[in-house]
Structures are given as C-alpha cells and as structure tokens.
Amino acid sequence: MNDLQNIVSHFSIDGTLSDIKPLGTGLINDSYQVTTIEKDKPDYVLQRINHTIFQNVDMLQENIETVTSHIRNKLEERKEEDIDRKVLKFIPAKNGKHYYFDSSNYWRIMIFIPHAKTYETVNPEYSYYAGVAFGGFQSMLADIPVQLGETIPNFHNMEFRLHQLHEATEVNMTGRLSEVQFYINEIEKRTDEMCKAERFYREGKLPKRVCHCDTKVNNMMFDEDGKVLCVIDLDTVMPSFIFSDYGDFLRTAANTGNEDDKDLGKVNFNMDIFKAFTKGYLESAKSFLTQIEIENLPYAAMLFPYMQCVRFLTDYLNGDTYYKIEYPEHNLVRTKAQFKLLQSVEAHVTEMEEYIKDCL
Ligand code: GN1
Ligand code: MG
To answer: Is residue 174 classed exposed, middle or buried when 0-12, 13-18 and 19+ CB atoms within 10 A define those classes?
Structure first.
C-alpha cells in the first residue's frame, strides 16, 4: 500500500480502491481523484488541507459541515432531484472526525460529483447561470442558524492586506522591492478608495453575510448543459461582504486573459461576461441586497483584481511562501496581470453603473 492508499484506508469509503491521481489546479490544497473498481460505487476526492494557511482545521471542517448540511436541508425541502450532485458530501474518517491527521498532514475525503465539469473560462450564458448560482448560494446561507468562524482571519480585509504589503516592503526579505516600485506606487494611489468597504462596515452601513470567498470560476461544477450544479472549495466560506463573491468571480471569469498571463495585451475586462453574470446575480440576490451593496458592485469588480494584485505582490516580496509557483517570477507576472485587469475594469465603471441601474 502506498502513502495515499494508506490515507484513504482511514475513511469508510464504499467500494474497492482502484486508482489515485492528482486533480485540479488549486493554488492552496492538494487534491486527488480516488477511483473505485465497482461501476455502481462513487469515486472520491481526497484532499490534503494546507494547514499552514488554514490553521484551525477543526473550525474549518465544522464550517463546511454546517454549510453543506444547511444547503442539503434546503434542497430537500424544495424537493430537488439529484441532491448528491448539488451539494458536497464529506465522508467521516474512521476515528469519527471529519478529517484524518497522519501526524504531519490533515486529510479529508468527499464524494466525487460524476459527469460534472469545471472550466477556467466561461461564455456569457454560463456566466449568467453562475450569477444565479452564487446569488442563490448566498441566499440559501442567509438564515444559517450559527455564526461561522473566520477560517482565515481578515481574509478579504483590504486594510489588512495592505498592512501585510507594507510589512513586506519594510522587511524587503528578498531584495525585490526596487524592481516593483511602480506597482507599489499604483497601489498606494488607490488605498483610500479600495478600503471603503471596511469604513462602511465600521460606520454600521454595510453588513457581513455568509459568503463563499473564493468564487474563482473553476470553483463551480457545471452540468453537461451548462447549468451550475454546485459550488466547491468551501474552505473559505465565512462572514464577509457580498463584494467577495461578486468581485472574485468577475476577476477570474471576465478576464479575457489568464490570471498569470505574460501577454498583458490579452488581459482585459469582458463586459459581456460582466453583464450576464450581474444579471443572474441580481435576479437571485436583489431581494436581500441593500442599496449600498448594489451601488458598490462596480467597486467590488475593481476591489478583487486590486486585492489579488496586492496579495501576489506581497508574496513575491516575501519570497513566494504562500502561493504555489511554477517559476521564480510567477508571483510578479501574476501581479502585473492583475494590475492590467484592474486598469481595464476601472475604464468601465460608468458603463457598469448604468447597466446595474437598468437591471433593477
Ligand atoms: C487561492 O485555492 P484556490 O487556488 O482556489 C486563494 C484565493 C485566491 C486565489 C488566486 C485560501 O484559491 O483567495 O484568490 O488562490 N485561496 C486562499 O488564484 O488563499
Ligand atoms: Mg479551487
């Protein structure tokens, strides 16, 4: 038995293990697809939880259990069909916990959703469905009876992310600061505007709600007809501003280039995706959104490329300790691509505002 097989043997899975192979492109956890021999038994997804980043694994798994069982109840009440493909299901470890600790790593297993697809890019039609789905996800979680923990404290707190950047520039651990001064200056010009959500919150004008907080387009499972089955990667589900989910989807889906594109000419903000997603999102979320949340959706579209630019740059200055990288300048390339995206979003603010007004 190899190491991964040994890990799997600590969970009560149904079926005989046939193969384990790497899965997905996440930058944080490691995922594997576990296949079983029997045709009528499910396959599984095995994940090694990155516990340097998610330091409170008990809280993490408890949040996920709360969220998935809440959604499952809603789907059952609505008499939905095919529920096991619409919400994740985790298999407890034989020790009764929702994870297994092998004395250096934390592992968990969930059922692999069959005949579902993930995409790195989507067309306007799929973006519309995604909008409806994320609005629906937030609205299903609106009445969750317990307070969820912050699995990564201050995760989408822009003031805190800038504070981390400032620390990184002061330490200048890798001596990379002089090379990135242009980006530091551009970031500084925008700090007041970009931190306004935190100010509104302190002034009592803006609520926190249960959000997904990692709505990258590749964190959704689509059915063969393009409809969204479910949202995956639930580690970061926690209280946040709705801007998190709206903004991070657009950051990834409405980018005409890649998150780490070296060709900045390819990186632009695609307004057709923006429009389709916004239409879907507002359809399912406008019943609970407040005026200030709706008015600030264009701000959210800017905030996430900006925040990601700050986070990638911070990691570059710190010597690439957070994100997986494929080559030494990877985080700098990502920073530049996110900044280019930000500029493109900024150029569309008036158009975004007008479109949102028309939707209501
Ligand atoms: C990480 O795990 P993954 O790759 O879906 C990150 C997100 C970033 C994203 C950038 C816990 O998401 O916040 O937006 O990379 N997740 C965490 O691609 O930091
Ligand atoms: Mg992911």
So the answer is: middle
Ligand 1 atom closest to the CA of 50, numbered from 1: 11
What is the structure's pLDDT at 205? 98
Return the ligand 1 atom nearest residue 236 CA.
Answer: 11
Query: What confidence tens digit (pLDDT) does each residue in 152-191 have?
Result: 999 999 999 999 999 999 999 999 999 999 999 999 999 9
Q: What kind and span of H or E run contains 7?
A: helix 3-8
260 lines ligand 1 (CB under 6 A): no
User: pLDDT below 50 — which residues of the chain?
Assistant: none
Q: How many residues does the chain have?
A: 360
| Nearest residue (CA) to ligand 1, atom 19 | 28
- Radius of gyration in angstroms for the set of CA atoms belonging to the chain, rounded to a whole number: 20
Instruction: Note the ligand closest to the C-alpha atom of 330.
Output: 1
pLDDT at 1: 62
Give one DSSP letter per residue of 186-236, joined into a string. HHHHTHHHHTHHHHHHHTT-S--EEE-S---GGGEEE-TTS-EEEE--GGG
Reported pTM: 0.91
Cα 335 to Cα 11: distance, rounded to the nearest angstrom: 40
* 120 in Cβ contact with 217 (< 8 Å): yes
Element (H, E) at 36: strand 30-36
Q: What is the pLDDT of residue 120?
A: 83
14: tokens are 């149904």
Cα 27 to ligand 2 centroid, rounded to whole Å: 7
233 CB within 6 A, ligand 1: yes
Residue of 111, 91, 90 lying closest to 34 (CA atoms): 111
